[in-house]
């Protein structure tokens, strides 16, 4: 069994609001919305209901020429859960030869694991339609493999 917490991520303003001219590096971060009530992180269950992992309404654009107050890496993305198993049976052919049959299954429960959500909260001065959307999975779907091993 593999159970991990998610990776940290930072919501992004989507443009250079601070005016530093840095267009290649990390864009600026937004401010937290002081009028927002409720959970910022909706989680995977919230994503199934609302289509977003986090609520973009929890953020507002900072004033032009200023920096936002959201700390970098202050939110945690979706966690990871996989359950792997293997079964094997050993058959004796004679005194020196044995045959082993193996069946191995990875992510037996076929649990969907998601990567971090789209962190860009704003597109220009309005909320981005893809803010907080989970677009990729992490890991693989269920995989089963069989093997024979002959020892002599």
Write up this protein.
With 152 residues, this protein is mainly beta. It has one domain (2-151). 5% of the residues lie in helices and 29% in strands. It has one helix and eleven strands. The chain has one helix at 43-50; strands at residues 2-4, 8-9, 31-32, 59-60, 75-76, 80-82, 85-92, 98-106, 122-123, 126-127, 143-151. A three-stranded antiparallel sheet has the order 7-8-11, with no helix packed on it. Strand 9 (122-123) and strand 10 form a beta hairpin. The longest helix has 8 residues, at 43-50. The two termini are 33 Å apart. The mean pLDDT is 93.
Describe how the helices and strands are arranged.
Elements: E1 2-4, E2 8-9, E3 31-32, H1 43-50, E4 59-60, E5 75-76, E6 80-82, E7 85-92, E8 98-106, E9 122-123, E10 126-127, E11 143-151
Antiparallel strand pairs: 1-6, 2-5, 3-4, 7-8, 8-11, 9-10
Q: Between the first and last Cα atoms, what is the distance in angstroms? A: 33 Å
Q: What is the helix tally?
A: 1
Largest sheet: 3 strands, antiparallel
Number of domains: 1
Radius of gyration: 24 Å
What overall form do the CA principal axes indicate?
elongated
Number of strands: 11
| Secondary-structure element series | EEEHEEEEEEEE
- Stretches where pLDDT is under 50 for at least 5 consecutive residues are none
Mean pLDDT, all residues: 93
Q: Structural class, from helix and strand content?
A: mainly beta
Helical content, roughly? Answer: under 10%
Beta strand %: 25-35%
Side by side, the strands of the main sheet go 7-8-11
